[in-house]
Design a protein that fits this description.
The chain is of the alpha+beta class. The protein has one domain (33-160): Aminopeptidase. The chain has seven helices and six strands. The protein has a six-stranded mixed sheet. Helix 5 (95-110) links the parallel strand 3 and strand 4 (115-120). The radius of gyration is 15 Å and the shape is globular. The two termini are 22 Å apart.
Length: 167
């Protein structure tokens, strides 16, 4: 995750990426949160992480979005998909879609509704990925005033989970 932050997301910012410092505590040991990892075994390198996804409770943080957007999720048991990152060497093979679908499935089974996410549209392929994701509806495009080129989506789990399972 740190490599992705450094290489493609402009670097680590403790205000935005504190969860990366303690993945176990933030995701694995805290109810309502999940860390999903897609890994493969390489005979020369051992276990190789191909990509990640996370689920956490709540919608976008109030300090980063317009009032109407955070209020949209304030009263609902919202699950937010995040950190859907795929190593550049393993893209275009279904890893991101499989992780995102697993995140939607986990969020839905946990009882979250709605399921939302945000993406940085300046990352090559990110916006196209989410626009093509089954059940994704664009809710708010923060560009050009948002310094992170953020675009917000909601996922309709009924549509997303009707997709055949990718393994």
């Amino acid at each position: 995750m740190r490599r992705m932050l450094a290489g493609e997301l402009g670097g680590y910012d403790p205000a935005l990426h504190a969860d990366v410092d303690d993945l176990r505590g933030y995701y694995l040991e805290t109810p309502g949160r999940a860390l999903l990892v897609c890994a493969d075994h390489d005979p020369d390198a051992g276990t190789v992480v191909l990509g990640t996804a996370t689920v956490r409770p709540g919608g976008p943080a109030a300090e980063w979005v317009p009032r109407w957007l955070w209020q949209r999720y304030e009263e609902a048991p919202t699950g937010q998909i995040g950190r859907v990152w795929v190593d550049p060497h393993h893209r275009r093979r279904g890893v991101g879609r499989a992780l995102a679908l697993a995140g939607v499935r986990w969020a839905t089974e946990y009882g979250y509704s709605p399921v939302c996410l945000h993406t940085n549209a300046s990352i090559p392929g990110a916006l196209a990925f989410w626009r093509a994701f089954p059940g994704a509806a664009e809710i708010f495009d923060g560009r050009p005033t948002d310094p992170w080129s953020t675009v917000h989506f909601e996922i309709d789990p009924r549509v997303a989970l009707a997709e055949p399972t990718v393994r």
